[in-house]
Amino acid sequence: VIVKPHTELVKDKLEHLLDFLKDKDCEVLLDESVDGLLSQNNIVSRDELGDRCDIVITLGGDGTMLNAARSLADKDVPLIGINIGRLGFLADVSPDEIGTVLDDILSGKHIKEERFLLETKVTRNNETIFSGDALNDVVVHVRDVARMIEFETRINDQFVNHQRADGLIISTPTGSTAYALSSGGPILQANLEAITLVPICPHTLSSRPLVVNANSEVDILISETNQAIAHVTCDGQTSFDVKNGDQVSIKRKQHTITLLHPQGLNNFDILRAKLHWSE
Question: Which residues have C-beta within 8 Å of that of residue 204, sequence separation ≥ 6?
């Protein structure tokens, strides 16, 4: 079990979840994010969670799911997301449904879905100085307010454009309903084999979102004439400063993450609820 850290709201829900799992005779290991919430002696590292567990349950929101997915993508362990707070796109089990929906999921009555991630690396003088994974998106963006960065985009080693903008979002279908959506990008079905490139406040009105094959490799070259500090961020949670002349390379990660959803889940229901369609 992985929880949203430093959140007192999680405590009661966590106790309820642990009681349910105990009644199901499950052996439960707790992530280090639980430390301080409950007096438990079964707290282990994230790596040990991935190595020993058959299923990982997250208790929090989409951010907790994103964090878990990145750290467990190489472990081949499926994720279930219990959502506390606002309705999530990823964490789709309500705490009130632990006794029913979660029971069904653990009994094998569920929808199994594979989602791909992006892996990124920053190269400087032919040396990799940063690497990271993202389930939602990799964003190359300006660090300072009210400034633009200058960069060149290449896809599969083919020149696309040179532009000045607040940045560029490289998104998976999972991330198409996140930052990319707020920047004018399209909503993609989660099972599409595609990556979107969405400019952030481009200085050219003709610059538009671009959808490419998921097996494409995207390279962002920070221009030597760039005058602002650029940043690369994975899922809004891990970040790194990049300098003029650096190259940010993004491609599909070989390992996928498996999500387990309640039976009867309809992604369009979630979209209608989150985006207030048909009101």
Answer: 163, 164
